[in-house]
Each structure stands twice: as C-alpha cells, then as structure tokens.
Amino acid sequence: MIRVAGALEERIKADTVVALKAGDKQRTQALRLLTAALKKERIDAGKTPDEAEEIVVLKRERKRRLEAAEIYAGAGRDELAARERYEEELIVVYLPAELGDDELAAIVDETIAETGAATPRDMGKVMGAVMKKVAGRADGGQVNRLVRSRLGG
Predict the structure, then answer these.
(1) Torsion over CA: 8, 11, 17, 21 (sign)
(2) What is the mean pLDDT of the chain?
(3) What is the per-residue pLDDT for 153?
(4) pLDDT per residue as tens digits for the range 17-39
(5) Cα 19 from Cα 31, distance rounded (Å)
(6) What is the CATH number of the domain that holds 114?
(7) C-alpha gyration radius of the chain
(8) Given this model, what pLDDT does residue 97 score?
(9) What CATH number does residue 71 fall under?
(10) Which parts of the chain fold into alpha helices (H)?
C-alpha cells in the first residue's frame, strides 16, 4: 500500500528544495529533520495523516527543540542551544496560530453546552470534543485546566 505525504509534509519538502537551491544549509538540514519526523509518523500510523495529526508531530518536535535548547544553554553549549532555537523558530512557521484565552474559553463554554456536561465526571467527554475543535491551536494542559475550572473540578 502506498502512503502519500500529508499537506504539511509536502509544504516542508517544497521549502526544503527552495532552501537547498538557495544554499541555506542550516535551513535545509532543519527542514529535512522535520520531514523525517513526519514521514516516520506516517509510516508508523500506516496511513496518510490529516493536518491535525501532522500538527501534533510538529508540536512534539518543537517541544523537543525547546527542551534541548534549555539543556544546552545550561551546560554552556551556546552554539548548540542556538541551533535548537533556530529549528524551534522554523517549526513555528508551520504551526497554526495559537488561540487566545478568550477564544479558547468560548470554545470550551460552547462545547460544555453542546455536550450537556455539568460535573467533573464529564471531563473526558468535553476534553475530547474541545481537542478536536482546537486541532493543535491550544495546549492540552491549558484546555484541561480551563475545562476543569468550568466543571468545578
């Protein structure tokens, strides 16, 4: 079975070609790492990922870069920290804009009303629905805290 790349992976591949032709080795290398991460996820899943699944991969890669940059900076390895920060900033370009607090609160309130949730026991039902709606535009921990506060948990 042939598994084709998702839209984000294709966009990153196209940007890799542009960076390669421009002779930008650092950007080319960083984009190739992203392509590899997306390809690995696609192969592991056994299907073409949708955009939300690709965003999850990019967010995970971004988090890894941030953590690595902190570790390198703490160890005095400023050149490696700078490389990780560069890659993190590059990943941000491919991620959708984060939802503001007010927008997220509105989505949570709307979802609670739709699902008829009233107690902390309904947390899972609300979380699943909200996470589908925000599709990588909000941090799961932030959504969890907001839902928990709305349901009185």
Answers:
(1) negative
(2) 89
(3) 64
(4) 999 999 999 999 999 999 999 99
(5) 9
(6) 1.10.10.410
(7) 19
(8) 85
(9) 1.10.1510.10
(10) 7-22, 25-45, 51-74, 78-94, 101-115, 123-134, 140-150
- Same domain for 106 and 44, yes or no, is no
Residues 13 and 35 in one domain: yes
Q: What is the pLDDT of residue 3?
A: 58
pLDDT at 82: 96
| DSSP SS3 for 138 | coil
Q: Is 31 helix (H, G, I), strand (E, B) or coil?
A: helix
Rounded CA-CA distance 13/30 in Å is 11
DSSP-derived secondary structure for 52-82: HHHHHHHHHHHHHHHHHHHHHHHTT-HHHHH
- What is the domain range of residue 15? 7-94
SS3 121: helix
Six-digit token string for 70: 């902190």
Whether the per-residue pLDDT at 2 is higher than 50: the answer is: no
